[in-house]
Every structure is written in C-alpha cells, then in structure tokens.
Design goal:
About 15% of the residues lie in helices and about 35% in strands. It is α+β, with helices and mostly antiparallel strands and about 350 residues long. It folds into two domains: about 210 residues, Beta Barrel (Thrombin, subunit H); about 100 residues, Pdz3 Domain. A seven-stranded antiparallel sheet has the order 7-6-1-4-5-9-8. The protein has a six-stranded antiparallel beta barrel with strand order 10-11-12-15-14-13.
C-alpha cells in the first residue's frame, strides 16, 4: 500500500523530496523589550517604585554588657513621608552613633524612636520630610509560591535586589539570645549580612515583611517578620516609644479548625492558636493552660492567629483578669488569666 501524500496538496505521485522548499524567513532584529517577560517587568516595576525608599543604616558604636563594641550596618525602609524608617532591633539596639544614607546618596544622622527585641523590629527617624516611602501591605493573605523581592544593602553593596518566592508562613525562629520569634515568613530570596531590616516586597510594590535572618550554609532559607506584625509594632512605638504588651508565657502557632469542629462548638473563626510551649511560673501556667490547647477567644474577641492574640494583649489593661476560651480535647472551656507586662 502506497502512502497518501495528499496532505502536501501535491499530486499523489509526488514524493516529499519533490516538494519545493520555501525560502527561509528573514530574521528580525533582536529587540530587548521583547525579551522582558511578565516576571521581569514585575520585578523592574517593584524596584523602580520601592527602591528609593530603601536606606542603608550604618552604626558607629553599640553599648554591650562587657563594654563598647564597634557597630555594623544594615538596611531599612522609609514608611512615612516624614522620615520614619522600619528596621531590625538588632541593627540599632543600644546604639550611640547612627547614620542613614538614602537611595539618592544623601546622608543623615538618625535617632532611634523605639525598638522591640521581642519581634526584632525598630523605628528610627531622619530629620527630613517628603521622602519616598513604601506602603506596608497585608501579610495575612500571603500565599506559598507568590513572588517575593528582597531589597537591601548586603555587605555594603547598596540597593541590591534578589528574588524568590514565599516558601512558608507561620514559622518559628529562635534568635541568638534564645528568644522565640513567632509567625515568621520563610522565603527563597537570597539574603546576606547587611540585608537585615530591609523590605520583602510583593509584585504590587507593597512591603510584606522586614527581612531578619538567614541560615548560613543553607540555600533558600531566608526569613522575614510579617508586615502586619511590623505595622502593629510601629504603631505601638509611635504611640508609647516602646511596645507595651501583656505577657502570658506561651509559644504557639496558627492552626486551622475543621468545619465539623466549628459547627459542633459554634465557632465563627476558621483557625485558632495552638499552644506549643508554656513557660513555668508564667500567667499561662498559673491559669492552667497546657500544651496542645487551642486558643480561640479572649474575652469574647476572636483569636484566629498569633497576631490577634498579640493585638489583644497590647490593648488589654495590664494586671486585669480576662477570660481565655480554649479547645481542649475538642471541647470548649474557659480559663481566667491575668497577664503581666512583658519585659
């Protein structure tokens, strides 16, 4: 049986080698604009919009327990028109000489407005108005896999950009002094010393986190403090000069609640705070809170995540009793508890 060559629109007896070849298409000149895909354009747009708000922070000397110690450098991001800057507490804590260099090269002496070692966040200010600033976004709806762009000044190289994705949320991270930081964002944008305090930004040029740490000798393990935590800490510092928060003495993380459990217990929140550690002799310990309890309510206020609990404790009068509602063995129960001030 002879093959059918009619698909070539030729006579049936014509073979492929008899078909005249079309002349090769002329190559068009390469246009760099055509090489910029959506990913590249998104990154460029974010850098153009956010880069001017990123600053380099240089620390002269720091006061340590064993005496004076030469300081270092870090990054920060301007978040108001009148020169307020978010950075890490460990960059500026107990500093005596603080200089900030803006993206345009201008240098200012800065003052520390307040810092919060518990979240490793600080607010500093330069005496200048009308500065470029970056809007602080909402980190509540961060999705694993979304674009994450880190901008900072690693190793003294100003305005360095690295990209990655959000790889996890609600991580815990223990600082060098042993303090447990909760609700941390893990991402894959490479960081280096000096990135600390710089912004992690989404594709809409909104700050979704403040970069805080890397794990040396590991790839793709970078961490940032979520934007919602940064907003709350900044507000507390601007109001009080420090963060005044109630202390319960627990470590926990957000845990989803099943639809069946919510229906059976009449709960409106889709998640709560799973207690993973209780400090001995703490308010939580004295109230009877235990590991594996799930906090769902504080004095009739829904507690869906760690930030909700932090916000409640920041607003509740210190030393005043309130009712903590928990799930224990899938049953609701109330625990009266008296917070003390966190030191």
């Amino acid at each position: 049986m002879q093959p059918n060559w009619e698909f070539l629109n030729q006579h049936p007896n014509t073979r492929p080698h008899d078909v005249p070849r079309k002349p090769a298409a002329k190559k068009t000149p390469v246009n760099d604009d055509n090489l910029l895909d959506a990913y590249s354009r998104a990154v460029i747009d974010v850098v153009d919009r956010t880069g001017p708000a990123v600053v380099s922070i240089n620390v002269g000397w720091q006061i340590q327990e064993h005496g004076m110690q030469q300081g270092g450098s870090g990054s920060g991001v301007v978040f108001t028109l009148d020169g307020y800057i978010l950075t890490n507490s460990h960059v500026v804590h107990n500093t005596t000489d603080l200089m900030v260099m803006l993206n345009n090269g201008d240098v200012y002496e800065a003052e520390v407005i307040g810092d919060d070692p518990a979240t490793d966040l600080a607010v500093i200010r330069v005496p200048e108005a009308g500065l470029p600033y970056a809007p602080i976004g909402d980190s509540q709806d961060l999705r694993v896999g979304q674009l994450a762009i880190a901008i900072g000044n690693p190793l003294g190289f100003e305005s360095t950009v690295s990209t990655g994705v959000v790889s996890a949320t609600n991580r815990h991270l223990r600082t060098k002094n042993g303090r447990l930081m909760e609700n941390i964002v893990q991402h894959t944008a490479p960081l280096n010393p000096g990135n600390s305090g710089g912004p992690l930004v989404n594709s809409r040029a909104e700050v979704i986190g403040i970069n805080v740490a890397i794990i040396f000798r590991a790839q793709g393990l970078s961490f940032a403090i979520p934007a919602n935590t940064a907003k709350w800490v900044a507000q507390q510092i601007l109001l009080h000069g420090r963060v005044r928060r109630g202390y319960l003495g627990i470590a926990g993380r957000q845990m989803p609640l099943s639809d069946e459990l919510r229906r059976s217990q009449g709960l409106s929140n889709s998640s709560g705070v799973l207690v993973e550690h209780v400090e001995p002799n703490s308010p939580a310990h004295r109230a009877g809170l235990d590991v594996a309890d799930v906090i769902v309510n504080a004095n009739e206020r829904v507690i869906a995540n760690v930030d909700d609990l932090h916000h409640f404790l920041a607003q509740w009068p210190l030393g005043q009793r309130f009712q903590l509602t928990i799930l224990r063995d899938r049953e609701l129960m109330g625990l009266p508890i008296v917070p003390t001030e966190a030191l």
